[in-house]
Design brief:
71% of the residues lie in helices and 4% in strands. By secondary structure, it is mainly α. The chain has a single domain, classed as Rhomboid-like (Rhomboid-like fold, Up-down Bundle), CATH 1.20.1540.10. A hairpin with an 8-residue loop joins β3 and β4.
């Protein structure tokens, strides 16, 4: 689980440093206007290692640890010596792909900013759902365990709806597209997981 631990450590350190350094925080956060007009492309990735506050950081890292260790283990089983590369592509690709829709919408909005690993974490969560669709999942806001595949469907519906309706300063677009990327990337890497997923949830005999 070395890669998961490494990402968590780097993210925690970067976030804490930026909690106390507004100038650095402003240089690294995702500002769509600066990306578009100043060509600061590094912000497509740097924003994911910053967080708005301790609660934001804690939630993302606890959830990432819960699912990341599992996904890293299975990537190691599936892909052997290539697992580190693929796992990093899952995480970093989740950061990139989940913020692109927001960039398209807000590239001329100087006030639009985003931080947090939520898009990448969604990618990892949905990789785990494709691998183990019947695994029980529970969160503090869900009082009972539900199968991972059902949670995934509910999550996708909720985030899709909220991305179009909500004005709550939460990156629902990032959650939605991170999840989509996690599913597609994992299946592209190992297509047999798609058939296995459908078998496990009863769609195929």
């Amino acid at each position: 689980m070395e890669v998961t631990y490494g990402i968590i450590l780097f993210t925690v350190v970067a976030s804490i440093v930026c909690f106390n350094n507004d100038e650095l925080f402003n240089q690294l956060k995702f500002n769509a206007f600066d990306v578009h007009h100043s060509k600061q492309w590094y912000r497509f990735f740097s924003y994911g290692f910053l967080h708005a506050n301790w609660v934001h950081l804690l939630i993302n890292m606890v959830v990432f640890y819960s699912f990341g260790a599992l996904v890293e283990h299975y990537f190691k089983v599936f892909f052997h010596e290539k697992y580190i590369l693929y796992y990093l592509l899952l995480y970093l690709g989740g950061l990139l792909l989940s913020i692109i829709p927001a960039f398209g919408k807000h590239k001329n909005d100087v006030l639009y900013n985003a931080v947090g690993a939520s898009g990448a974490v969604s990618s990892v969560i949905f990789a785990s759902i494709i691998i183990l669709p019947k695994a029980p999942i529970s969160f503090f806001f869900i009082p009972v365990e539900i199968p991972a595949w059902l949670f995934g469907i509910l999550y996708i519906i909720y985030e899709f709806y909220m991305s179009r309706k909500a004005k709550d300063n939460i990156g629902h677009d990032a959650h939605f597209w991170g999840a989509v990327y996690g599913v597609i990337f994992t299946i592209v890497l190992k297509p047999s997981l798609a058939t296995g997923f459908l078998h496990q949830i009863g769609f195929l005999p």
